[in-house]
């Protein structure tokens, strides 16, 4: 089937062609919406759909041929995979695609394997896998107009489209290199693969184990037993790991102590926690404000506040990820630029509405936003905007207008951090307001705003978030029962957008 879809795609060049990179939720939606009027192919490095939700058997420590794989060769890591026993941070009704409800037996906050099954059922219902090519890696996306004559000759093809895409086998970056062409390229691979490490002076002094949450698997719990574990960062990954370690794991497997180092806001929230009250009282969970300044010995560090953290056995970074697209970066097309701080790529642009590449609007990024509560609605609306642009139902403004709009959006995103890290943060609580952003997408693509869905979010989930996460009681959030508050077999209505 995989070879067939590649040949079918090549043979359908007379139609408008769309190449989709990634078969996670956004890639799946793009495949569903664009297959009707276009010649499409969705390519994924993995052996199946799901993206981040696809649990990978191997990580960097266990892969038998790590350096041979294409992803590791180009990114320096393997793609991230949600670890075992993880529950979603949103209730299932907020993760539902329109017209396709989840199964009633799923937990209110779905397990990762339940949402992965939902994605499989969605693909089967719409017969999407016939458009997908797995175990294939995208190594380059180039504008054909910028290729040299020699580069054009080396493709062995008559070049008639906008983009030239170089692909190869995912298991061996040297194997089976070949080329496809496309009128449009959609990037739907997310940004949770290349770990971000903050700069720490004298880190080489530390003799204990150090790793990023990117590498975590359930068997790591054995490594923490009776150790002093320091978690640097207060992101959702840190919250999930604290929940798994202290609440889901038998106490005989607990670390001797966990020290959480995070910013003032996160620590203030934890200090009022009822869920972790006993752990904090018994000093099993210690809280430290500010950033790490540097290590002062093989087991001790100093914070910017002047406080010392000592007798450290394991340092775990919960410090997020960078934006990284080697298939675009290693060209001279300069379609995107990164906003960097200490070589950390915090965001990129210029993008119109956080989607359309201003310099080449036929290059479209989907699903880059984060922290949103209306996650699947937002992704689906982005996809519909992309589809209506590609199908020539809507037009985009001039390049000058889009660039100015991006610059205004980026300037607003710098309210808390000048380094651009909040540009893709679209949330009810911080960053770009997600309801306002959804309305912008509605206006762009002539869609109705889903008042019913957003009323459920505001009336049901926002109070849960305020009463649990924002009061330091993250473990309680996923125990909430809300199915009885939503119509049975609910999903956003088909006729609204």
CATH fold name of the largest domain: FAD/NAD(P)-binding domain
Number of structurally distinct domains: 2
Proportion of residues in extended strands: 15-25%
Major sheet description: 5 strands, parallel
Please report the total strand number as a whole number. 24
The CATH class of the largest domain, by name, is Alpha Beta
Q: Could you state the CATH homologous superfamily of the largest domain?
A: FAD/NAD(P)-binding domain
Lateral strand order in the biggest sheet: 3-2-1-7-22
* Radius of gyration over C-alpha positions, nearest whole angstrom: 23 Å
- Discrete helix count: 15
Structural class: alpha/beta
CATH architecture of the largest domain: 3-Layer(bba) Sandwich
User: What is the arithmetic mean of pLDDT?
Assistant: 94
Q: Which term fits the overall shape?
A: globular
Q: What is the CA–CA distance across the termini?
A: 32 Å
Uncertain segments are none
Percent helix? 25-40%
């Amino acid at each position: 089937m995989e070879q067939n879809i590649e040949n079918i795609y090549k043979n359908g060049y007379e139609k408008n062609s769309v190449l989709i990179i990634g078969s996670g939720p956004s890639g799946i939606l793009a495949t569903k919406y664009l297959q009707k009027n276009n010649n499409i192919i969705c390519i994924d490095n993995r052996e199946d759909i799901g993206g981040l939700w696809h649990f990978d058997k191997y990580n960097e420590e266990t892969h038998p041929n790590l350096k041979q794989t294409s992803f590791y060769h180009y990114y320096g890591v393997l793609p991230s995979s949600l670890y075992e026993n993880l529950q979603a941070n949103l209730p299932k009704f907020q993760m539902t695609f329109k017209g396709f409800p989840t199964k009633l037996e799923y937990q209110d906050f779905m397990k990762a394997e339940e949402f992965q099954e939902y994605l499989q059922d969605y693909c089967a219902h719409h017969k999407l896998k016939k458009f997908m090519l797995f175990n294939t890696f995208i190594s380059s996306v180039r504008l054909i107009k910028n290729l040299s004559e020699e580069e054009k000759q080396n493709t062995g093809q008559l070049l008639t489209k906008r983009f030239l895409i170089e692909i190869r086998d995912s298991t061996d970056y040297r194997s089976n290199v070949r080329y496809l062409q496309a009128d449009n390229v959609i990037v739907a691979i997310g940004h949770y693969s290349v770990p971000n490490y903050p700069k720490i002076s004298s880190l080489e002094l530390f003799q204990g184990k150090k790793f990023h949450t990117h590498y975590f698997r359930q068997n790591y719990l054995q490594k923490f037993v009776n150790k002093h574990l320091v978690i640097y960062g207060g992101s959702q990954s840190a919250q999930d790991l604290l929940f798994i370690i202290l609440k889901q794991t038998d106490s005989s497997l607990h670390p001797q102590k966990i020290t959480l180092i995070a910013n003032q806001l996160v620590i203030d929230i934890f200090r009022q926690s009822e869920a972790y009250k006993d752990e904090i009282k018994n000093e099993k969970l210690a809280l430290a404000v500010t950033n790490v300044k540097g290590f002062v010995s093989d087991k001790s560090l100093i914070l910017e506040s002047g406080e010392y953290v000592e007798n450290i056995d394991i340092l775990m970074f919960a410090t997020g990820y960078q934006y990284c697209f080697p298939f675009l970066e290693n060209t001279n097309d300069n379609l995107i630029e990164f906003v960097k701080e200490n070589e950390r790529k915090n965001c990129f642009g210029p993008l119109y509405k956080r989607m359309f590449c201003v310099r080449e609007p036929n290059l479209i990024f989907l699903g880059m936003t984060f922290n949103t509560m209306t996650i699947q609605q937002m992704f689906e609306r982005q996809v519909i905007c992309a589809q209506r642009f590609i199908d020539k139902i809507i037009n985009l403004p001039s390049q000058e207008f889009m660039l100015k709009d991006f610059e205004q959006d980026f300037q607003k995103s710098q309210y808390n951090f000048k380094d651009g890290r909040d540009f893709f943060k679209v949330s009810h609580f911080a960053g770009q307001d997600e309801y306002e952003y959804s309305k912008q997408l509605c206006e762009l693509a002539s869609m109705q705003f889903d008042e019913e869905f957003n009323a459920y979010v505001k009336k049901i989930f926002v109070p849960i978030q305020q009463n649990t996460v924002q009061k330091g009681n993250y473990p309680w959030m996923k125990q909430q029962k809300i199915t009885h508050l939503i119509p049975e077999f609910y999903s956003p209505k088909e006729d609204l957008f």
